[in-house]
């Protein structure tokens, strides 16, 4: 059974369970011929799914909602959550004097045009008592180094388990504003999405794929040190730094497994519903989507 998996970014600790399952041969044991398609910036993972170039794609719940909201909706569903917790933050330099989101009014935020991220940041600022009046810049690359460090921007959206760790090891002191601290619900990210209309063979292939993947993430959660050596084989040359990967993996491993089920991949309908209602309040949707139309845990074992 061939499964083509389109990743959302360059190899990183969010993907560790996949690489662990490859290393241990668990996909082969499950009869899955896995084709990993790394992110190439020419087509989004969801676009690859839409064009029939992938069977499973990684994206955010926001991106899934954008595809389901089109005039001709893409018939896809979330089939698993990669992470159980929100590891993103809005980061500023500690030396900037910005101590709370409300102080971002009138400041420059370097954005990478991801699904509804700008609206989320404006909401975060308003929820702290500000106006949500930011200046958005869209550089070709959004990194800590070419934005905050070079004083080209005052804030950026980062993932604390990756860019945050990089900054800490480089001695760049950051202050983090986390979404949950300012009333913004967690929209599962990344998630795995697939076509909702599956025949029997396709369902069997995805169930086998997810079972092997869950085994990989369970192993990565329990063995963060050993996982670093596997991740080292996959990451880009720029990221082949073992102390960094050890720290990044240690920061990520605790967030793979659901406390509700004790297993990987599960999505809680209450959390999804809270996020959907928040999107309506923000004006992104006219009415909340039905949770069961967007996510399913049925393919998880």
UniProtKB/TrEMBL annotation:
Q: Which biological pathway? A: Cofactor biosynthesis; thiamine diphosphate biosynthesis
Which SUPFAM superfamilies does the annotation name?
Periplasmic binding protein-like II
Extract one GO BP annotation from the record: thiamine diphosphate biosynthetic process
Which reaction(s) does its UniProt entry say it catalyses?
Answer: N(6)-(pyridoxal phosphate)-L-lysyl-[4-amino-5-hydroxymethyl-2-methylpyrimidine phosphate synthase] + L-histidyl-[4-amino-5-hydroxymethyl-2-methylpyrimidine phosphate synthase] + 2 Fe(3+) + 4 H2O = L-lysyl-[4-amino-5-hydroxymethyl-2-methylpyrimidine phosphate synthase] + (2S)-2-amino-5-hydroxy-4-oxopentanoyl-[4-amino-5-hydroxymethyl-2-methylpyrimidine phosphate synthase] + 4-amino-2-methyl-5-(phosphooxymethyl)pyrimidine + 3-oxopropanoate + 2 Fe(2+) + 2 H(+)
Q: Which InterPro entries match?
A: NMT1/THI5, SsuA/THI5
Q: Where are the transmembrane segments?
A: none
- Give a yes or no for keyword Iron in this entry: yes
Q: What is the top-level taxon of the source organism? A: Eukaryota
Record keywords:
Iron, Metal-binding, Pyridoxal phosphate, Thiamine biosynthesis, Transferase
Recorded GO molecular functions are: metal ion binding; transferase activity
Residue ranges constituting the SsuA/THI5-like domain according to the UniProt record: 12-226
Family indicated by similarity: Belongs to the NMT1/THI5 family.
Question: Which PANTHER family does the UniProt entry name for this protein?
Answer: 4-AMINO-5-HYDROXYMETHYL-2-METHYLPYRIMIDINE PHOSPHATE SYNTHASE THI11-RELATED
**Complex and partners:** Homodimer.
Per its database record, what is this protein's job?
A: Responsible for the formation of the pyrimidine heterocycle in the thiamine biosynthesis pathway. Catalyzes the formation of hydroxymethylpyrimidine phosphate (HMP-P) from histidine and pyridoxal phosphate (PLP). The protein uses PLP and the active site histidine to form HMP-P, generating an inactive enzyme. The enzyme can only undergo a single turnover, which suggests it is a suicide enzyme.
Q: What is this protein called?
A: Thiamine pyrimidine synthase
Species name for this entry? Answer: Fistulifera solaris
């Amino acid at each position: 059974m061939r499964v083509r998996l389109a990743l959302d970014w360059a190899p990183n600790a969010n993907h560790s369970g996949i690489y662990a399952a490859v290393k241990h041969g668990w996909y082969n044991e499950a009869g899955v011929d896995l084709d990993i398609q790394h992110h190439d910036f020419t087509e989004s993972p969801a676009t690859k799914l839409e064009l029939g170039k992938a069977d499973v794609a990684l994206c955010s719940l926001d991106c899934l909602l954008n595809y389901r909201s089109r005039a001709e909706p893409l018939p896809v569903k979330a089939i698993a959550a990669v992470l159980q917790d929100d590891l993103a933050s809005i980061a500023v330099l500690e030396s900037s004097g910005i101590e709370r989101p409300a102080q971002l009014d009138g400041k420059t935020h370097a954005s990478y045009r991801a699904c509804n991220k700008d609206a989320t940041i404006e909401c975060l600022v308003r929820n702290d008592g500000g106006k949500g009046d930011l200046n958005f810049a869209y550089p070709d690359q959004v990194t800590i180094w070419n934005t905050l460090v070079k004083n080209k921007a005052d804030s950026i959206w980062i993932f604390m388990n990756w860019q945050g760790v990089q900054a800490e090891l480089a001695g760049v002191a950051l202050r983090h504003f986390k979404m949950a601290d300012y009333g913004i619900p967690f929209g599962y990210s990344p998630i795995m999405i697939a076509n909702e209309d599956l025949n029997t063979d396709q369902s069997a292939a995805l169930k086998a794929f997810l079972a092997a993947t869950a085994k990989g993430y369970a192993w990565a959660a329990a063995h963060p040190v050993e996982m670093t050596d596997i991740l080292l084989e996959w990451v880009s040359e720029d990221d082949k730094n073992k102390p960094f990967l050890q720290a990044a993996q240690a920061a990520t491993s605790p967030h793979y497994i659901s406390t509700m089920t004790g297993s990987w991949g599960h999505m809680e309908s209450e959390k999804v519903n809270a996020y959907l209602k928040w999107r309506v309040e923000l004006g992104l949707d006219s009415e909340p989507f039905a949770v069961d139309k967007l996510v399913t845990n049925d393919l998880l074992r």
